[in-house]
Amino acid sequence: MPDQHPTEDTDAAALEPIDPDIDLRQARRQGLNRRRRDDTSVLATIAAGGAAGAAARYLIGQTWPTPAGAFPIGTLAINVLGCALIGVLMVLITEVWSRQRLLRPFLGTGVLGGFTTFSTYTVDIQRLVSGAHAGTALFYLALTPIGALLAVWVTATATRRLVNWRIQ
After folding, report:
1. Residue 13 lies in a domain
2. 0.90 exceeded by pTM
3. Which long-range contacts (CB under 8 A, 24 or more apart) does 104-110 make?
4. How many CB atoms lie within 10 A of CB 136?
5. Could you tell me the residue range of the domain that residue 55 belongs to?
6. pLDDT, tens digit (0-9, with 9 covering 90-100), for 68-101
């Protein structure tokens, strides 16, 4: 279960989840110097994760290239897989590993942010349209966000059920 703290505007009985990466009330109390050190460590963590995720995406793209005018199955697979993994990660971060402050920036923003490639998705659509493959482009345009959202929902739901089952 995520960390819970009473909000400043309500009494202690009204609890709401707090982002596990930072409690803004605590950040205000700690002062600017500590916050700058924390920002630097978070930025370095994200950069390291981003490099790893981008390298993995590049290697998959090289292994599974898309010929000109063909359906970009590699990019679709990368984006859907990345979204599936973010569904698992967010449940684990909020319900199991909530005390690991740098885990979400490293894996979520860094690795999976570098791994997924929605910029390539838009370039793929543009190339398909300019190559007279408008039907394929429209199908890909619709399929990617639907697949990505479904992947997050399915894996988050399944992970939450598994976590709750193990706790019982």
Report:
1. no
2. no
3. 104/20, 104/21, 105/21, 105/42, 105/45, 105/46, 105/49, 106/45, 106/46, 106/48, 106/49, 107/49, 109/46, 109/49, 109/50, 110/45, 110/46, 110/47, 110/48, 110/49, 110/50, 110/51, 110/52, 110/53
4. 18
5. 23-167
6. 888 999 999 999 999 999 999 999 988 888 777 8
Q: Which residues partner with 16 through β-bridges?
A: 5
CA-atom Rg of the chain in angstroms: 20
User: How many CA within 13 A on the CB side of residue 72?
Assistant: 30
- Residue 16 maps to a domain: no
69 residue type, one letter:
G
Q: What burial class does residue 100 get, using C-beta atoms within 10 Å of its C-beta: 0-12 exposed, 13-18 middle, 19+ buried? A: middle
Give me the percent of the chain exceeding a pLDDT of 90: 54
Q: Which of 121, 110, 100 is nearest to 21 (CA)?
A: 100
Map 27-41 to HEC letters.
HHHHCHHHHHHHHHH
Number of domains in the chain: 1
Is the residue at 17 inside a domain?
no
State residue 2's pLDDT score. Answer: 47
> Is there a domain that residue 1 lies in?
no
